[in-house]
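Researcher: Here's a chain I'd like modeled. Treat it as a single chain, no partners, no ligands.
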Amino acid sequence: MSTAALAHETVPSHWRHRHLLDLERLTPDEIRTLLDTATLFKEATDGCRRKLSVLNGTTIVTLFFENSTRTKTSFALAARRLGADVIDFSASSSSLSKGESFIDTAKNLEAMGVDAAVVRHQTPGTPHLLAQHLSVGVINAGDGPHEHPTQGLLDIFTIKERLGDLAGATVGLVGDIAHSRTARSNLWGLMKLGAKVILCGPPTLVSERWRELGVEVSHDLDAIVPRCDVLNLLRIQFERQNTRPFPSVREYAHLYAMTRDRLKRAKKDLLILAPGPINRGVEVTAEVADCPQSLILGQVANGLAVRMAVLWLTCGPRSTTRTGGESSSATRIY
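Model: Modeled as a single isolated chain. Structure tokens:
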């Protein structure tokens, strides 16, 4: 589809969400719609390099209460690529420092004509709470250890570009599963698309109770490496831990870092992912992070396409047609 044609399209009628809060509650078809739309935008913008005007007149505010490089920049750039205006909210210089509540602050921004809020917060459920109080779209950019839906989507999008159908693929999520919102979003999305998921890490970070969701649990990276088609290497989130879950970083790296020796025992076409920021020498060695099988920078690039898709689906124009006095959504994009 050409850029000019895309500018006149409307959000698919089968996409009925004004918010993106998690992947757990999305259906497989809804996840496929997000991924297909990301493909559409990536192609229409020459790899997310060119601008479109599909969100002209739309204003997006980024409400980030935790540090971020990739996600915050990616959302802002994705919004501008679609023609939207972006407000970068700073909590430290806002009325929150004067005692104003989080909800009141958000409602004031809404009253200024904001169309959607991209929210990152250290407390799980914050975007869900905000969605209950605002009429504009709310997009979860990470809520504590709960979920990070766009990171999960861009990871899955990156895998899908290489493997095609995910059904039957074996994906290992390695590292700090206990505190990882990325792991949870990946888990839900991958399972819904038919992939086999293995969670791997120290027993203190990977509970046996994960098996109740139908995933495999392993505490031995060497045992699962030869079986995996994809390894997603997760950062140890020391900032979320009250106690040290293993004796030392050196011991963790010895047991769970993806090294050149482990790569030699893997499938030749193994894909290496890492949501970042990566700590070289902890979850992955430098030579593996930069090897041909590594898609780490590809994930960052694909984050633009995925977030363009999410912003358009939640904020884009919805066409209505009248039939017998009833209004219904119509679509021309698929």
